[in-house]
Automatic annotation (TrEMBL):
CDD domains: HAD_EP. This is Acireductone synthase. GO terms for molecular function: acireductone synthase activity; magnesium ion binding. The lineage of its organism: Bacteria, Pseudomonadati, Spirochaetota, Spirochaetia, Leptospirales. The keyword Iron-sulfur does not apply. It is an enzyme of class 3 (hydrolase). Keywords: Amino-acid biosynthesis, Hydrolase, Methionine biosynthesis. Its EC number is 3.1.3.77.
Amino acid sequence: MDYQSTELFLFDIEGTTTPIEFVHKVLFPYSVQNFQTFFSKNSAEPGFAEELIQYSKNETEYKEEVSNSPGSLSEFCKFLVSKDRKLGILKEIQGRIWKIGYESGELKSSIFKDVPAFLERIQKTGKRAAVYSSGSVEAQILIYKYCEAGDLTRFFENYFDTAVGGKREANSYTKIAEKLSIHPSSIVFFTDIKEEAEAATKAGIKPIILSRPGNHPQGEHPFPVIENFDGILS
């Protein structure tokens, strides 16, 4: 691929810049351990309980009735995590919990070792970088701010979560290009999921799939596959 014509690199996080293992074995368990405390301390937070209760009515797999008690909300959120639901309110709550963990020093995010150098090259060549992940914008910023390589947030000009739409929907990528005031054909999107690559392609964006340690095998697809960012823009 001719990266020289690329104006902006759009990054997924899990399985792309950050190991899947970190998300599923560190971040998710940390939120699960702290849901009860969070709801006990934030019982008056407007909207949290109401939105979760409303959503629970459509969650046919969950057999318990969800109430606004900290225990009930906590158990329902644990269930949502176990099913890897991409629910906006859940991601927001997790982001709030992770913020406490990062700021206290309990959490430190893992980043693949080739990522900081690639971000440096993007910046030095005058190109742009942004993030699109199912995690909340706050959670995205925390991962890059409190990571083993130091604060990497200076390299990203914008962050997008599912408020723009689902990652397997072409219109989400069209909206991102519009918000960044850039033609889709000038964007390269890095992901580890072929369905996301397919959606980006429909929007005119060029996708590349990362084959990182721990990533899930993808079905047959026509997209370029790389193992790391070494050599890009070198």
